[in-house]
Amino acid sequence: MDISPVQHTPGKRPADVARLRRVRDLIDRTYAAPLDVVALARGAGMAPGCLSRRFRTVYGQSPYAYLTARRVDRATLLLRGELGVDAVCAAVGCATPGIFTARFTELTGLTPERFRRLAKSGADNAGAAVSPGVEGLPVCLAQRVARAVRNQEAPAPARPLT
User: What local confidence, expressed as pLDDT, does residue 5 receive?
Assistant: First the structure.
């Protein structure tokens, strides 16, 4: 019987969160490499299924969804530069331009080409051209506010009580 005053849910114990933070940091550092959940789990001392479940519990998305969002975040920065869509696709580690375009569009609502055109047209404040409402924010905050979220993961609008 556990008599400690703090009750931790199975995925959110401090030791688990620390291990999952290291996994997330590794995904952030190696976002251009293919995701190997088995190797990540081995490094964290967990079974692959357990890692995926606990990662979702703590961060609200699977390791693969987190990696995809990270790649799209990086791609939005690269598309503002001189690289073409194919070069950005390769730089962020996507297997094919078709997969890259589909995931980018799913997360941002714009194709990479359209995103690039909008970012280029608003060169003085490119974030505002693509993400309205972040005009006066510093870049570090604007990126957090305008962070890519899959349509399926966005909260559903409240239904009116009629």
Answer: 42
Burial label, 108 (beta-carbon count in 10 A; 0-12, 13-18, 19+): buried
User: pTM here?
Assistant: 0.70
Q: How far is CA 63 from the centre of its chain?
A: 9
Question: Residue 16: CA atoms inside 13 Å, Cβ hemisphere, count?
Answer: 18
CA distances from 106 to 95, 116, 161 (A): 16, 16, 30
Decide if 133 contacts 145 (C-beta within 8 A): yes
Q: How far apart are the first and last CA of the chain?
A: 48
Residue-wise pLDDT tens digits, 22-77: 999 999 999 999 989 999 999 999 999 999 999 999 988 999 999 999 999 999 99
Q: Estimate to the nearest angstrom the gap between the alpha carbon of 48 and the chain centroid.
A: 20
Determine contact, residues 27/62, Cβ cutoff 8 Å: no
